[in-house]
Design a protein that fits this description.
The complex is a heterodimer of chains A (about 190) and B (about 750). Chain A is α+β, with helices and mostly antiparallel strands and about 190 residues long. Helices cover about 35% and strands about 15% of the residues of chain A. Chain A has a five-stranded mixed beta sheet, with helices on both faces. The chains are: A alpha+beta (about 190), B alpha+beta (about 750). β1 of chain A pairs antiparallel with β7 of chain B, so a sheet runs across the interface.
Amino acid sequence: MSIVSTSSAADDQLRPPVPPGSVTLRINGQEHTLRLAPWTSLLDALREYVGLTGTKKGCDHGQCGACTVLVDGKRINSCLTLAVLQEGADITTIEGLGTPEHLHPLQQAFIDHDAFQCGYCTPGQICSAQGLINEGKAHTEDEIRELMSGNICRCGAYVGILNAVKEVAEKELKMASCTCYGSHGHSSNS
Amino acid sequence: MSTDSNTKYVGKAPNRVDGPLKVTGTAKYAAEFDVPDLAYGYVVSSPVAKGRIRKIHADKVLGLPGVLHVFSHENVPGLAWFDRSYKDDVAPGGSPFRPLHDDEIKFNMQPVALVVADTFELARYAASILEVEYEVEKHETDIESKRDEGYEPGRGKTGYMPPQRREDADKGLEQSAHRIRHEYIHGAQHHNPMEMFGATVHYHPDGKLTIYDKTQGVYNCQQYITKIFGLSKDEARVVNLFMGGGFGSGLRPQYELFLSVLAALELKRSVRVTLTRQQMFSFGHRPHTLQTLELGTGPDGALLGLKHYALHETSRFEDYTENVVNWSGMLYKCPNVRLSYGISPLDVYTPLDMRAPGAATGSFALEVAMDEMAYEAGLDPLEFRRRNYAEEDQNKKAPFSSKKLREAYDEGARRFGWDKRPMAPRATREGNLLVGWGVAGGVWDASMQKAAAKATITADGRLTVASAAGENGTGTYTIMAQIAAETLGLPLEAVTVRLGDTTLPEAPLQGGSWTAASVGTAVKNTCEALGEKLLKLAQKMDDSPLKDAKPEDVEFVNGLIRLRKEPQQSVVLRDVLQVSGEREIEVDSSAMPNPVNMQKYSMHSHNVVFAEVKVDEELGTVHVTRVVNVVAAGRILNQKTARSQVLGSVVWGISMALMEETVMDHRYGRYMNHNYAEYHVPTNADVRGIEVYFVEEEDPHVNPLGVKGIGEVGLLGVAAAITNAVYHATGKRVRSLPIYLDKLL
């Protein structure tokens, strides 16, 4: 028999951690001032402090993509950044893309193509798809498959996800080529 | 087009009625309910597999401002005494694990403490510095070392069928012209739904609890909690409106439920406990299973003898059982069969039903063995299966209530182009890629359980149907709305479905592919009963054209009640409600399986899967480039959601064949790849070319809806078809999953 101990904490760890401070985040066009510990992830800030639970926690380690949000139009894993680092940024969550009454084209396409089952990875998939379209890279099926592969779907709805993203990306790319070259070529996130 | 079909929804492909909630982040999962004054619990897990907790040094972390409590066996209050209080509806035989019960460590990552604090961040931090001393004892976690120690369980869980035999398998094998005997293995697999287990317990001022838990059965959780904590049902309402994937992981109450309720009751405060992805590997898995298959045929390829033995792990405290081998006595015609089964206890948590439990395991071994046998007998693998087609259930000696597997073979072969397949392995090449085609299939139970439902119609013609069934992605809200709308002739938009709440009529656990049959029939019966009440009200109206009509003489279509024989004789349903003066009309009813039919018939769904793989000869990498999955599962209620379930099953099969395995480091008795980066599941780039077809069966015997369930059957045969395709591509027979590239080099 042997004896092991875990986490024999050093004395300095036992001091009260850094106290919560004030953080102001601009989420879906609205300012939120929160009091939170500086090591609070953006994901936890959204879910536990702002009440925007559409952004999902699937692993908390940047491995599954369920927490994908758009920061200044770029898709990121919100579990891998701290809330305090995103002060001044434009954060768009699934709630900012559309509502049940006014669905975003990607949201409608996900419904039409049955691109989800349990729905838990879905907000992340949709935010990731919007990010992909913003990047202007969703030109072929293989490109969409590859560049949507940071978002795991355990229900295995990948066929529907591909078709939904393809449908919207094709429309967006067509619109982009009709308007002027060099513009962002995507609809706004509102 | 006739307007008559407007409210005929069953069998069509409407979009999910809960789709708008799910795609906008509006659907609420267990850890997302906003309750006031919430405290957060964080679970501390054991780093050792066996031993005792010597001391938990809680004092230090309790000194952190905002840390409320450290729950452990050292301070848990007196709870229920007997094992039976901890048994849930699907507990296997044995003695269930009790969280924080005593100092004994039974498995690695066992929860040993719950740290509760004012914020999640603080609870997590405090848990990370909590010092726990353990006495470590020697553990055993390797089933390979227990090959000769398997015993036949006598006290399996509900639904376990002891293996059977018929005639003399040894004699049949001796008389065979061709024989094979091989061992087939797969490692442990974990369900890994996207949503991690979590519970939000709302502690009301009167001390009552509303428990939002991740579960496939709210009633199962309620009876578990009320027995352990001595609460009345009124004091513990359990709710699950949406579940972020289950696949069996939520059949039994998991420890986040116990811990969050404990903390809420003790602290008299609302508490949320969510597990980490790592902790998702700590409460049940598809067991590591070793199987031996022996087959023999006559010169014509007719099976003469079959032996199938399976051995898998269980925990030290419960006898987990699943039906691994029984399917091998059912899928093909064979006069001489011996099926046997053993389990062996290890220092792990009890395994847990995972999508098509037993059958996914058994069909992999049987269907690879069938492929090997076909080659040994010199027959095309599909032709070999056709020659051994089972016309009846030989285990039960009863006819099938319906079985269109032969039609599925025809449909699948035609869609896939199977007739162009060269028999010899390594016959097709595209550059440095070897191309192979494989076939396999399976059989699954068409089950039904008792279920109840309630239907309420209001004066404005809106219908609400309610049952405590679950929605874990299968489409329960949608198919129940379809059934209700069609039964009462209402537009789908006029129907609201409520699920997942112990204040609603009782439904069985969401599992076994029985929800559509069980809850669907309950909803249908309830709506029919409501229809009879509405007919009576319609008959009271002045000059009602339905005055002398009996319930069977009328139909509900397009918002009307009308005579079947004279459809122009009708009344408008909303007029009936208006004239009646009733504000709402409510009806309860239920549904039960038909015991006579269950006795008389064998009720099963079947499928066949054709797969194409391309294998890089130099790198050993396998890509699944095409899959055709044809399913015969009775009537299909919703073409869209049913197809999605089978598409998902194919992804699961690809995963099982090529990626998925939880790897134990036996030195520590600990799963080492317990995260999404190292526990591999397919991503979008791994999936292409999947086709799903249904061969619909008219089955008047199975249940009033004629459905067999679709959540599990589609997974069967997928891993075997891919394994067989890899053989066809490379000439290498892999008998151990997953097929990593080193097995092909």
